[in-house]
Amino acid sequence: MRRKTVQKDAIKNAFLMESRPLRVDEILQMGRKVVKSLNQATVYRNLKCLVEIGWLRIINHPDLGIFYERAGKEHHHYFHCHACDRLFEIPGCALHEKEFVPPGFVTERHQVFLFGICSACGRT
Amino acid sequence: MRRKTVQKDAIKNAFLMESRPLRVDEILQMGRKVVKSLNQATVYRNLKCLVEIGWLRIINHPDLGIFYERAGKEHHHYFHCHACDRLFEIPGCALHEKEFVPPGFVTERHQVFLFGICSACGRT
DNA sequence: GTCTATGCAAACGTTTTGCAGTGGG
DNA sequence: CCCACTGCAAAACGTTTGCATAGAC
Q1: What local confidence, expressed as pLDDT, does residue B101 receive?
Q2: What is the model's pLDDT at position B98?
Q3: B2 CA – C2 C1', rounded, Å
Q4: pLDDT in tens, B24-83
Q5: Which residues of chain A have pLDDT under 70?
Q6: Any idea which architecture A76-122 has in CATH?
Q7: 3-state SS, one letter per residue, for B53-79
Q8: For residue B96, which residues of chain A lie inside 8 Å, CB to CB?
């Protein structure tokens, strides 16, 4: 991860152009539009590096599987619309964890996944 | 799933004896204490059936991967202690989703995963 | 006896790894 | 020129499937 390559730039660019969590296959597809020889092994290796240096975060979504998103965003929840199958980031936090965990338990971090219908799909 | 077999009973018993979410390899190990010939394919097939008939639920934990738990329990959150690596079920709900989702969005279901230190490990 | 459920092995999709060669510095 | 990074192919991993047969009823 010390050298600059076109493959690396293509992968990072996918996240800069789309401001939403991406799956590996999406990243590969987007990257191949720039570097058509781009290999999946290269994508996996670079994603691993980008997570290690704190540029990306992994999300393992309970229904949709593994996504990668830019790190450093403020805390948010994830909303999966089962009509259009899109994954939304909902800013803010609706969890009142301090009032909630049993005595002695210390919560350092949490993740919330919501499932339902988004405004676009609910509009019918 | 119409016939009663020792394999099936062994798998169901694992959940009746342990009242916590179980991983496939744990279920296989526990089942083999009863039926030493128990095969992983059999475990997978039975787990699938038990999910279909609503006896089990699948949990895909963001950090720990796939677990199975008895269905029909009241809603709860999951607390992962990164010291002892155990997965706790926290009864109740600390999510105020109605006050929270953007207008037009309808939440039907949610899952909350907490990460931290449990009371036993924090006591030190 | 029938036919479901099992055990085995092979197939599967996704991710990782070994290795030779490309190309960034 | 060096060695990090890439592409390829094979391996690894967890899960699923095809098939012959044991065993539930």
Answers
A1: 85
A2: 64
A3: 14
A4: 999 999 999 999 999 999 999 999 999 999 999 999 999 899 999 999 899 999 999 988
A5: 97-99
A6: 2-Layer Sandwich (3.30)
A7: CCCEEEEEECCCEEEEEECCCCCEEEE
A8: 94-96
CA distance A23 to A42: 15
Task: Give the A:B interface size as CB pairs under 8 Å.
Answer: 125
- Mean pLDDT (chain B) is 91
Q: Give the Cα separation of B87 and B71 in Å (integer).
A: 17
Closest CA to B62 of B26, B114, B20: B114
At B121 the pLDDT is: 92
What does CATH list as the number for B6-70?
1.10.10.10
pLDDT at A20: 87
Residues of chain A with CATH 1.10.10.10: 6-70
- Interface contact A100, partner B, CB < 8 A: yes
Q: Any chain A CB within 8 A of the CB of B101?
A: yes
Residue pLDDT, tens place only, B64-81: 999 999 998 999 999 999
Give the model's confidence band at B99: pLDDT under 50 very low, under 70 low, under 90 confident, else very high. low
Q: Which residues pair with B115 in a beta bridge?
A: A109, B80
A113 CA to D11 C1' distance (Å):
35
For chain C, which bases have at least one atom within 7 A of a protein Cβ?
4-10, 14-18, 24-25
How many Å does it take to go from CA B123 to C1' D24?
52
Domain with CATH 3.30.1490.190 in chain A: 76-122
Residues packed against strand D, CB within 7 Å: A 1-3, 5, 7-8, 35, 37-39, 41-42, 45-46; B 3-6, 24, 40-41, 44-45, 48, 65-66
Contact B96, A94 (CB under 8 A): yes
Q: Which nucleotide is nearest to A39 (CA to C1')?
A: D7
